[in-house]
Amino acid sequence: MNGGEAATLTAAPGSPLNITPVASIITDGTPAPPRQMRTSTPCALDVIGEQKLQKVWETCVTGLHQQFNNVGEVREAFRRYSLAQGFTIKFKHNDSMRVSAKCKAEGCTWRIYASKLSTTQFFRTKKFIDTHTCGAGTASAAPPHASRKLVATIVKEKLLSTPNFKPKEIAKEIQEEFGIELRYSQAWRGMEAARQELQGSYKESYNLLPWLREKLMETNPGSVVSLNTSDDSTFRRFFVSMHSSIFGFENGCRPLIFLDEMSVRSKYQSELLTATAIDGNDGIFPVAFAVVDTINEENWHWFLEQLKSSLSMSQSITFVSDRQIGLRQSIAMLFQNSYHGFCVQRLSDELLKDLRGPYTQEVVDVLVAHMYDAARASTREGFMKSMDSIKSISPEAWEWILQSEPEHWANHIFVGSRYNHISSGVAESFYSWVPEIQMPIVQFVDTIRQKIMELIYTRKVESEQWVSRATPILEEKLQKEIMKAQSLQVFASQTAENTFDVRDYFGSVNHTVNVELWSCSCRDWRHNGYPCSHAVAVLQGIGRDPYDYCAKYYSTEAFRLTYREPINPVATTNRPVHGEGLVSVLVQPPALRKLSGPPKQRRIRNKGVIKRPLHCSKCKGAGHNRATCHVFS
Asked: Where does the SWIM-type domain start and stop, copy by copy (predicted)?
């Protein structure tokens, strides 16, 4: 069995479901008539569904003349059947031509024998004694021995239907279904063994990275995939930017990228770096990702180098990230005409961490809300108003925020274009795609690729139904501005062409709009990329269509360009196995991750250690203490 393949038993169409108990010795050396032949039973993975595993496995052995596809199926069927019936088997013969097993209980008469049919790979049962003299199957019978392989056999099929099973849940189900009590550590190790059977070796998966790199670029020309190792061939980082993502970002997305990081569930030290954009409907659009051995400035710089080599656009890009990940120098060096904004969500987290004082949760929530208002404020007046509110609650918080470089996060002075997206929380949506279960690195990378492939196809199909020239999100936002514009008055300037004053009906608010410059003194037009209510009032007043004054990224045409190029599937069935066609470059895994994980093994004392003998303080005798002394009792 290959490391990455699960052993399965397949039921041929028309397999008999009626089981006739065999209570005596059945032997036969001649082939049974076709109408009596029993093929592999319905104990296959694909028929489990909501059925109890035990009930399914009870049908793995049906009697004489049962046929199996190969020797692996025979062994697996015998193991599963014995487990479901509540006894342990011992293989007497177990080779490529014959398999025989008996009940492990001393003196028990239960036996089964299957052998290979000549000139075929099929096996058939030739002998079957289905009588136990050991009490198997009764309430008094001892449960099967819980070996790691036995636990893995059960867990393997449960993981197929419920990949996020926890060891505690697995132990509970096995106890309820099979009567086998497991410690947490046994369930955890059985789960690890099952995962390795299903997914393959975690260590060997790193050796497949050169193959995966070539495969991704072969099936998706124009993609950028980079593998980097240390001098001793230890894995350091693996970067992926699919051609579809590159094309979509450059032709349909706003020049805005969110950079973020997260830990990966893995046996080995692994972290995920991501570059995520936003499409014209405010949906996340993955541009690139990388698995690295650790989070540091060097790995981030390398990631940005690969990202720069992927993109051909000369347009300035605005990056948004956590200010603590040391990206400032790398962005300035590699993307010289770009801008770097700080994530306000992470800034507020930092503020609360540094803030002293017994603040209630309600006060904390108000502080954070005012900080977000300060970040979104389009004018200095709006910013200072929010800051004054913060100062009235906590002068310490006010001082901290002023020292946090507002020029990198406050709308009224930030020079880049964030389209009012002030938090990298957008990128966190990417994490919903990241596999929650632990898996080898090749499967991990390809799972993310598949998610992006599915996203691109789904949104492409979705946009084909749109009839508006703008995306649904812009339709919604612009309609709100159009409604607000109905209560505004427009006055044309007598001295400046294309410049207008806009007031509300009470004359209390006055803004200046320049149609040719796409600007309004409220600055919302600039920050959002579509006309504010003041601009809408002017445009409608002079007979122009507000939709003509929206950033191109909000158009249905741009959205369809974003998702025009598909990601092609990558077949993994022909992946090389160890020693057969592996790329000459060998990749060693990084250091093992130290997890709180499963409990440590119980300490086994060194046999050479001599225990200090007990002595009784009452009778002075050896071998007992005063609590168990019988001399003076």
From this structure: 511-543
| CA angle at 461 for the pair 457 and 464, rounded to the nearest 5° | 145
More confident residue, 343 or 13: 343
From CA 93, how far away is CA 82, in angstroms rounded?
Answer: 17
CA neighbor of 205 nearest in space, from 617, 576, 498, 614:
576
Q: What's 128's DSSP letter? A: E
* Least confident span in 92-96, 294-298, 616-620: 616-620
Measured CA to CA, the distance from residue 79 to residue 94 in angstroms comes to 13
Q: Which is it for strands 26-27 and 123-129: parallel, antiparallel or unpaired?
A: antiparallel
Element of type H or E holding 491: strand 488-492
Cα of first residue to Cα of last residue in the chain, in angstroms, is 65
Neighbours of 332 (CB within 10 A): 12
In the 8-state DSSP scheme, what is residue 610?
P
CATH 3.30.420.10 fits 206-342+424-451, yes or no: yes
Q: How many CB atoms lie within 10 A of CB 600?
A: 7
Q: Residues 174-186: pLDDT tens digits?
A: 777 776 777 777 7
Q: What is the DSSP string of 244-288?
A: HHHHHHHHHS-SEEEEEEEE---SB--EEEEEEEE-TTS-EEEEE
Q: Determine the Cα–Cα distance for residues 451 and 252; give it in Å rounded to an integer.
A: 20
Is 66 within 8 Å of 42 (Cβ atoms)? no
Cβ atoms 556, 463 nearer than 8 A: yes
Of 108-112, 144-148, 286-290, 365-369, the range with the lowest mean pLDDT is: 144-148
- Structure-token pair, residue 576: 């090389």
Helix and strand counts by DSSP (H, E) for the chain: 20, 17
* Entry field: residues in the chain: 633
Q: What is the 3-state secondary structure (H, E, C) of 150-172?
A: HHHHHHHHHHHHCCCCCHHHHHH
Please give the angle made by the CA atoms of 253, 248 and 375, to the nearest 5 degrees: 25
State both tokens at 350: 């930092």
